[in-house]
Amino acid sequence: MYKFLRVIILIFLSVASLNAEFNLKVSLENWAVNYEYLGISQRKGETFFGDILRARFGYKVFDNSWLYGGILLKKDYNGEGLDKVYPLISFHFRPNEKTELIFGSINIRHDFHPAMYDPIKYFVKPYSDGIQFLYNSEKIKIDTFIDWELYDTIEHPENFSISTLVGINLGKLLFNFQTRWNHHGGQLYPHEGINVIHDLSFGGGVNLKILKGKVINLNLSSESFFSLYSSDVNKSLDNNGHGISNKIIFDISKWILFYEYWKGKNFFNEEGDPMYRANNMHRFSVAKEFKLYKDYVSIRIEFNGRYVDKFCHDEKIILDVAVDKFFKK
Q1: Alpha carbon 7 to chain centroid distance?
Q2: pLDDT digits over 238-261, tens only?
């Protein structure tokens, strides 16, 4: 790992000139997530604590292209030493201010509904490798990417996913569509029974802005989600359930309060929050982000109360420190 970092630094130094432009990105996440889920079948109670440090150094190769190299350090508070040391390498092509194409270490944060992707995975596996296309304008947002997690070997099967998220802003109406296809399989991994699995989930909906003021904002949203499943044993794409999420969302002086009613019918998504496998769920949420020092340091707190067969709850406290500096030499 240290040889890798030394090579990256030498490459940047060798190509640097008097007109070279650089970008330093450093972020630290200190996070605590607690799930008090007792006596329900969807999820067990768990507690997570840890730190994630990302440090990347970028060099502007061309007018519209950047090359980044760096490292990710992950420490879970469950033992001694680091739990993960991971290299970060990426090439970014930016033909204009709205469009970006990333090869290598792609962004890990996406606007998935929790039924599509469990938010705890951002902390458990805080890195993704693949290809990502981003488009961000006033009216349209697109995030589509391939996340390649594992190659096919004799120790484990291959595993990758292809996802797309689209948002369309029409003023008071905001439409969204999201889909995620997970593939497990391969021919090298010696496994009896099912060798290839396809898990396809997709959905979307609309968000209506009821009230927009200086202090209070009120939105209503409704989203539907569907899941399909197939394997090398059963070739056809079979229905794996569906669900509907209806929300009332208040923004009061940057305090986010919402109520969600989830009505499902045997919905199952491998990567989603297991709580959305319930056929009926009520969720109450309160969240607030506090700026501690400009845009560099913030702390976010969140409380979720849920009722499935009984009341359960979870809490999150996340400290973010982020530096993103551009400079020339």
Answers
A1: 30
A2: 888 999 999 999 999 999 999 999
Task: Classify residue 162: in a domain, yes or no.
Answer: yes
Each residue of 149-160: pLDDT tens digit? 877 666 777 889
Give the Cα separation of 201 and 163 in Å (integer).
10
DSSP 81-102: S-SEEEEEEEEEEEEETTEEEE
Could you give the CA distance from residue 88 to residue 73 in angstroms, rounded to a whole number?
Answer: 10
Q: Tell me what percent of the chain is helix, strand and coil, each rounded to the nearest 5.
A: 5, 65, 30
Sign of the alpha-carbon dihedral angle for 54, 106, 57, 323: negative
Distance CA 34, CA 52 (A): 17
Cα-Cα-Cα-Cα dihedral of 125, 126, 129, 134, to 10°?
130
Total structural domains within the chain: 1
Q: Which pairs with CB-CB distance under 8 Å and at least 24 residues apart come from 188-191?
A: 188/152, 188/153, 188/154, 189/152, 189/153, 189/154, 189/155, 189/156, 189/157, 189/158, 190/154, 191/157
- Report pTM: 0.89
| Spatial CA neighbour of 110 closest among 96, 122, 94, 97 | 122
Give the pairing type, strands 21-36 and 311-328. antiparallel
Band the pLDDT of 97: cuts 50, 70, 90.
very high
Domain residues for the domain of 283 are 36-48+94-328
- Please determine, for residue 84, whether its predicted confidence score (pLDDT) is greater than 80: yes
Question: Tokens for 139?
Answer: 């009216």
Give the CATH number, domain containing residue 237: 2.40.160.50
> E strands of 186-254, at which residues?
197-212, 216-231, 238-252
Residue 318 placed within a domain: yes
Task: Extract the runs of DSSP E, i.e. beta strands, from 106-172.
Answer: 129-136, 140-150, 158-169
Asked if residue 313 is part of any domain, the answer here is yes
Question: What sign for the dihedral angle of Cα 112, 114, 119, 120?
Answer: negative
